[in-house]
Amino acid sequence: MIFSIASSLLLGGVAGYGYLKTNGVTNDADKIQRIFANAGWTKKEDGETKTIRLRRRRKIENGMEYVYQLPLGFDRKKVDTDVLADGLNTKKIAFDITKVKFNKDILKQIKQLKGVKANKQVELDFDGMLKIRVYENDLGKEEWSDGLLKGGWKVPVGKTQQGKMIYHDFDNRKHLIVAGATGFGKSVAMKMMITSLIMNKPDDVTFSLIDLKGGPAFARFKKAKQVTEFGTDNTEALEIIQKVKERMDDDYRKIVEGGFEDVIEAGLTKRHFIIVDEAADLSESKESLRLLTDIVRKGRGAGYYVIYATQYPTAEAIPMQIKRNIPARLCYVVDSSTASTVVLDGAGAESLPEIPGRGIYKNVKQIILQTPFMSNEQIKERIKPFEEEKHELPRTPSTEDRKHTLVTEKA
Ligand SMILES: Nc1ncnc2c1ncn2[C@@H]1O[C@H](COP(=O)(O)OP(=O)(O)OP(=O)(O)O)[C@@H](O)[C@H]1O
């Protein structure tokens, strides 16, 4: 019979409990306290070393939440989730009990057993108190279902460790930066978002899709009536961005002339999305970037929303003006804390488990989640009703089409 027993329990039961108890390593709260002390996450006050104080703990879905009071002036940025997770993931020992001999050599036999690491996940939160959430099991993958749709301009971005689906509401948070190393789920997420928006608002949404990787991800949407522009290189990108900017300026001027602050107050139902995949390549064209930055700034009010995606999160690929105007970020696994800092203004995404679709969504707070997986077949089925023959996709809608976009009505 094969058993898997956490080493602390097994040793506690057999022999080592006394040692662990005197060293205080018997539960996660104790371990957290010790990790803080050993990692030097403390603060000197009147010559005394102060550390965190546990105020309360509570059971949450799939784990425990520990709430700590921090010493005055403590820099919480030095708390590292990786170090915490390493400390909390005690080795588990898998052993065949029929082969264990209960004699004086039992400790020797235990030492020879191979350890298997636990898979606890750690999440930090701060609201005056430091909250450390320790989850017992990994999130796992999340399959797509149409029941996830909430309507409006909301798209699902992922399920949290506590089983809650998080939505990005474009009318509320506007634009979005999507980043992550190659193969970790950016294209899947963006295709799911495009499909969700089409399903939510088939008559009101339009898209300019710019796929600077040559079109493999977005080509499947080319025939959808909602896709008004499609480009795959920098020349086409510039042409599209110029036209969209003209249109946006025109729309924005009318909104302001109507005495409204933005598209929502003006009661306008149409929204346009400019989605750029491999936006790092856009930085080769200064003019494209300049115009896109302008769209990002004014688009908030005009109902022109940008999704800016890159697999190379560097300061050049995500210029400061873009970052400043796009507070919402969705970051999948990246290869360094520097890359994570470019996207999220802090480390974290470099230590996500290497699971496609596992990311950190930063809106007001940062949250770890798993993006639902919508397969290409599922996309095809959902997009088919909206496909139409297009001889040549116009880079920008005709004036005739645009007449519909600005009939301002009071909300
Ligand atoms: N949310 C997800 N759930 C499950 N599997 C996923 C998810 N996202 C991506 N994958 C898997 O990972 C593969 C690569 O994902 P995707 O094409 O989105 O990567 P990418 O980040 O866009 O890479 P690149 O930058 O090279 O285009 C997918 O084909 C799919 O098998």
Automatic annotation (TrEMBL):
The keyword ATP-binding applies. ATP binds at residues 180-187. Transmembrane segments: none annotated. Keywords: ATP-binding, Nucleotide-binding. InterPro entries: FtsK/SpoIIIE/SftA, FtsK_dom, P-loop_NTPase. Coiled coil: none annotated. The keyword Flavoprotein does not apply. Residues 162-341 form the FtsK domain. Residues 386-411 are annotated as: Disordered. It comes from the Bacteria. Gene3D superfamilies: P-loop containing nucleotide triphosphate hydrolases (3.40.50.300). It holds the Pfam family FtsK_SpoIIIE. This is AAA family ATPase. It comes from Fictibacillus norfolkensis. The lineage of its organism: Bacteria, Bacillati, Bacillota, Bacilli, Bacillales.
